[in-house]
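Hi R.,

Here are the chain sequences for the assembly we discussed:
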Amino acid sequence: MKRTTFSKLNTCTAWLVFAIAAVIYCLTVEPTASLWDCPEFIACGYKLEIGHPPGAPVFMLLSNVFSQMAGDTAHVALMVNILSALLSAGCIFFLFLTITHLVRKLVSPAAAIITIPQVISVEACGVVGALAYTFSDTFWFSAVEAEVYAFSSFLTALMFWLILKWEDEADTPRGERWIILIAYITGLSIGVHLLCLLCLPAMSFVVYFRMAKRVTRMGMIKALVAGGLIVGGILYALIPGVVKMGGWFELLFTNTLGCPYHTGLIVYLILLVVGLVIAYYKTRRKGVKLSLACLLMILAGYSSYGVIFIRANALPMMCENAPDNIFSLGSYLNREQYGYTPLLYGPAYSSELDFETKGNYQVVKHQQGKPIYRPSADSAKRQYEVVRHDIQYVYKDNMYFPRMHSVRHAKAYEQWMGGVRKDGRLPTARENLRFFLTYQVNFMYWRYFLWNFVGRQNNIQGNGEVEHGNWITGFRFIDDQILGCDTSKLPSDLANNKGRNVFYALPLVLGLLGIVWQWRRGREGRRQLLIVMLLFVMTGLAIVVYLNQTPQQPRERDYAYAGSFYAFAIWIGVGTGTVIAMMRKLFKGRKLVATIAGTVICLLVPLQMVSQTWDDHDRSGRYTCRDFGANYLESMQKEGYPIILTNGDNDTFPLWYNHEVEGVRTDTRACNLEYLHTDWYIDQMKRPAYDSPPLPISWRHDDYQEGRREDVLVRPELKDEVKTFIAQNPEEAKELLGDQPFELKNIIDKWVLNDREEMQCIPTDTVTISSDKGEMVISLKDVKRLFKSDLMVLEMLSKADWNSPIYMSISMGSSILPFLRDHLVLEGLAYRISPTAEGQRVNVDRLYDNIMHRFRYGGLNKKGIYVDEDVMRMANAHQMVMSVLIDSLVQKGDMERALAVCHKWKQEMPQENVPYIETALSMARCFYLTEQQQQADEIVCNLLLRADEWLSWIETIRPSRRNGSLHSFYAWLQNMEQALALAQQFDRSEILQQYYKQYELHIQQIQQN
Amino acid sequence: MNSISNKSNKTDNLMKSNRKHLNDSSAPSDNSDCRMTFVRYTRRMIIAAACLLIVVGYILMSGPGNTEQAFNLDIFSTTRIVVAPMLCLAGYLLIVVGILWKD
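And here is the predicted structure of the full complex:
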C-alpha cells in the first residue's frame, strides 16, 4: 500500500474511533449539572460569571457558545456536558493518531510501501490503545461532566500530536508553523488548566532527537533542563510577571498621573504587543524571530483572561475574588485563596512559630513581603492603596522536602502514619519519606493508576481502610492477599457496587508489553520510550510531588492524573504490536492470519473494559444535582426573601446553578459561610441579585476589609465590669454602649465596630436579640472567638428584624455556628433560625408540604440509575429528614400523613437504588403501628441481613488490617441493635429467632479481639 | 507619492513576470517568492483580523455593572453574553487558521 493511501486510511480510522467515543460519551452524559464544581462552571459559561480561581476563561467562552445551542435553560447543562463529551472524543482522536504515528515508525520506518499485514498491525495498535483509554475509569468520568479536565486532556493530546507532526515536517519551511501553533495552544491552555503545560518537557525531547546531529547524554540532560525551564518560565515568570508589570503601569498612571483606573493597563498592553511585534519584524536571526513569534502567540492565548477581567467589572452574582483590577487579578491567577505549600524547604506541621519581643508583647516573627494594593474603598478617591503586606511567618525549625506540612491536618498525618515519633519537633526524615511514599505516591497516585488498568474495588472514597476505594485484580487469590480478607464473603452492598470494575490486569500487561517492545526496537524505539516515559512521569508523579497533598481529601483526586493514563494508553497501543509479533512467531510464515489473530485478541481487552465500566459511568436519566439543589431552595418559605447559609461545594454550587441558569427561586439568596469572611464576598452579599434584595448587612467596606476584624475574642469576664460601669455612670453608659448594653445590635455597633482595637471584642457570653416576637438569647458559652463569617451572620440576624428569614443548611457540621443550634426549626433541607424556638424543633406542616409536594428526587426511582457516593449521601440526607418527619407525625398521632410520607419514600427512593440505612427504621415503626407488618418486616430484615453480611465479612479481615474498618463495624453493629430492638418492641419473634444469635456472636467477636 | 507609484509598478512587473513564468517552469523561484509574499500578507491579515475580532468582542462585553443600589439586568444582555463571546471565540479560532494558512 502506498504511503498516501495509508495516510487516508489512517485518518478514516481515526474518525471512526472518534465517532465511537463521541457516541458512547454522548449516550452516557449527565443530562444536567453534576456535583462538585460542574454547576459553577456551567453557570459561569452560560452567563459569563466568575468562578473559583484560577478561572478557565477559554472554557468559559467555548461553553458559552455551546450553551447558546440549548433550546431552553433546562438544556444548557446538557449542552456543556456534550461539549465535554466531544472534546474527550477529540482527545481519543489524537491519541489514535499519536499511537499509529509512533507504531508506524517502529514497524515500517522509511519504506514508501507498507504491506497489508503491517497496515492492519498499525491500525490495530491505534484502535486498541484509543479504545482502552476511552473506556478507562478516570477519563470517562471527566468526559461526561462539565469540568475543565476533558478540555485539558484534549489540548494535551493535540499538543503532543502537533509536535509529532512537526517532527515529520521539520525540514520544510512550513515546519515552523507547527511550533508557533503549539505556542498558541499553550497560551490558550493557560485559560483552561495548567496541566497542559506538563507535556512540554516530553516535547522538548522530540525536538532534541530530531534536531541534534549526535545524541549524547549531556545533550539529553540539556534538553530536559530546557523543557523544565520552559514550564517553569511560563508558570512562575510569564503568568505572574505579565500581570505584575501591568500593576506597575497602573500605579504609575493612576496613582502618580491621576488617570482613571485601567488606563495604565491599556497603555501597557498596547506597548507590550507593539514592542514585541516591532522586535519581531526588526530582528533578522531566525531563532530569535521564532522565539518572539512563540512569545506573541502565548500572550495571545493568555489574553483570554480579558474575559475574566471585563466580566468581573460587571460585578455579576458569582464573582469569586472579584478580580476587577489588575492586582486582584494577580492574586486570582496565583490561586492565593488556597494558601501556600512548601516544596523544597519549609516548615512541617509541628514546626513552631518563632516569637520575638516587641515592646510589651510577644509577636510572631514574620517577614514582611510585598505590599498588596487594592483600589481605594472610598469611591471618591481614585487611587490604589496598600491594604496590607504579604506576611511570611518565620518558623523555628524547617526541614528539607517537607511532606507533612499543614498544621490543620496534624491529626490526619499522625493517624495515617499510626503515630509519629518526632525528633524534637519535626518528623524524622525517614517518617517524612514514608508518608511521601505510602500516602502521596502509593495511595494517591498508584492506586488510581491501578484502578484504571487492573481493577477497582468500589466507588466509595477510601482513606486506607479495607472496604473502600482500593484496587483489585479480579483474581480471588490475589485480591484476598492484597486486601487481607475473604473476598468471597463480601457484603452484597460491596459486591454489587457498580463501581466494582475488574480487568484481570490485562490492560496493565498490554502496556508493559508495549514498554518492552519499544525498548527492544532499536534506537527509534528507545527514543520513543523515553519521550512517552517523560510524559508519563510529568503528568503523574511530578504532579504528586508538586501538590504535596494532605490526607483526608474531600474527594478522590484521580482526575488530575489523566495525562499519565493517556501516556500509558499509548503503551497499551504499542503492546498490541508486541502481541501481534508474538502471534507471528506462533503462526510462522502466515503473517496475515497472525496479524488478525493478534488484533482480535487485543481488541478483547477494551471490550472487556467497557463491559465493566459502562454501569458506573452511564449517568443518563439522572437529575439529582439539579433537583437536590432546587430542594434546598424550595425548603425556604415563599415570603420575605429568605437567605440560606451553606458551607461546602455540594450544598452551594447546585443552588447557584438553579439561581443563575434555571431561574429557580430567584427571590432567595444562598450565602456560603466559607467565603463570608472575605471582603469581596461580603460586598457581593450587599448587592441585590435578581429578585433578592441586599442582605441586611450595614457594615461599610472599611469595617470588614481584609485584615480588619478577622476574628474577635469573646470575653465574658468583662460582663461585670460593664455592669458596674452602667451602675456608676448611667448617662455616660447609655451614650457609649446604648440603652440595652447586651443587645446584639449594640454590641456590634459599639464594641465590634469600635475604632479602638481593645474594644473590638464581645464583652459577654450571652447576647440578646429583642423584637416584637420576643427576646432571643444566644449563648456564647464555650465559644472562644467569633470569626468574621460568624460576625456577619450575627449582624444579619440583628438587622433583619426577623423580616428576612435566615436558614441554615442541614449539611453543616455541628461545629459551625454552634451558638445558633438551640434556635432552629427544621422545615426541609434547612433549619430556619427562629427567635422563639427552644432546642431543635420541627415545623411539621412545612416539612410535610416540602417533602410531599415541592421536592424533586432527580430520577432516583428509575430502574438501573447510577447512584454514586455523593448522590447517595444527599439522598440519605433527604431520608434523614423524612424519618424525622415520620417520627414527628407518629408522635402527634397523625398516622395518615405519616403513611403518606412512607409511601413517598418508597416511591421516590426505592431500596434497589438507595439502600436502607438506619433512618428507614422510622418507616418500619410507622408500618408496624399501622398494622402493615409485611412492609415493616421487609425493611427490618433487609437491614439485619445486610448488617450480618457486613459484620461477618469484616471479621474475615486480617487483624493487622482491621483497625481501619472498626468504624464500619460499629456502625453496622448499631444498626443491627436498633433493628432488633424495633423487632422486639413489636414482638416479631421470627425475626428475633433468626438474627439475635448472630448479633450475640458478633458482639463476642469484637470483645475477643 | 513617487515611491508608492514606483512600488506599484514593481508589483505590476512582478505579476507580469509571474504570468509569464506560469508557462515557464524553469524559473520557479520568482513564482514562489511572489506567492510567499502574498501568502505572508494574507496570513498577517488573517491574524490581524482575528485580533480585531477579539478586541471588538471585549469592547462589546464591557459595560456598567451591578451596584449596591440596583440590580443591573444589562450585565446579562444579549450583546454582552451572547454576541461578544462569539466574536471573541471566532477571533481565537481565526488565529489558528492564520497560523496554518496554506499556500
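Chain B has one domain: 7-100. Residues 7-100 of chain B form one domain.

Let me know if anything looks off.

Best,
T.
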